[in-house]
Amino acid sequence: MITKRLRRQSLDALFLAEKVLRDGQLVAVPTETVYGLAANAFNNQAVARIFDAKNRPADNPLIFHVKDVAQAAEFADMTPLAERLFERFSPGPLTIVSDLKSRDKLLACADLDTVAVRIPNNKFLLELIANCGFPLAAPSANISGKPSPTNCHDVLEDMDGRIPLVIDDGESKTGVESTVVTAGWNGEIVILRPGAVTPEQLAEYGRVIIDPRVTEELDDGEVRSPGMKYRHYAPKAKVLLVDGDTEAYAATFASAFPNVKLYVITKPEKNIFAELRDADRNGVDQIIATLPGVTGFDLALRNRLLRAAEFNVVKN
Ligand code: TXA
Ligand code: MG
User: How far is the CA of 32 from the centre of ligand 2 (A)?
Assistant: First the structure.
């Protein structure tokens, strides 16, 4: 399959993307967080193509992208708290898991009776969803396990030849995937995956609980969000996190292993996924990065890097 790349500005981008989606095929689309791999969320055959193209485990459900809260209400049974959170943070990097209204099993929900929904803050994507009239199921547009793509080049690195169309809208603004939460009838907000909408911001709307798996390696008990149990965001290079003085640790490491190609990230930032991919392209063997903190956007960086490093942290 030849993958066509169209700039967001090109005259036929919207038209062609809609046509491909109506045909039950996949389009890689820009969002403000990372690029997504989109299909009609209600078309199980189309959604199956997403799981194929990504090599994604079938029990890991996808996020439904909608144009507004009214469209979400067509299939998601939102709590009053969920509606308040959408009003405050959407369009934007917040995904809310609600009960599904219908009992029909959807492949995009991995047969669960819940559904994850977000309203992305990207003009092209919002117009595309409005034109299609159906929600778009879209996970990050990477091969499962690799860092999420934040530009068209990184999408093509994984998806060239696997999908018919990618829409290029430059660099993703946020660089890290959306915050995923549940917003219970009891007023509790549980963070399943941290992102640019921070725990501190959410705390103004209810009691915030951060699922322990966000920062800890647990493999027992019930997993509330299937995505938590898979190895994630990992480049080919090994990743080691330093809790303390990263530069000193890296200097010691470099003199002990002079033949290992080392890449040091002293201050991880929102371009972290692009950096991990660059390191791989440059043949880096070992990445040493500072362990980010537990507040604000740092919590999202900490969560992604802990998984990329398979929880290898040294104190220094
Ligand atoms: O920013 C984003 O959220 C990006 C862009 C493309 O919108 N999408 C994204 O999708 O990161 P994905 O598939 O890579 O991650 C979806 C996460 C997974 O951790 C998944 O387990 C969780 O959301 N999720 C989806 N549906 C769920 C559900 N019904 N219950 C609990 N967790 C769910
Ligand atoms: Mg992903």
Answer: 14
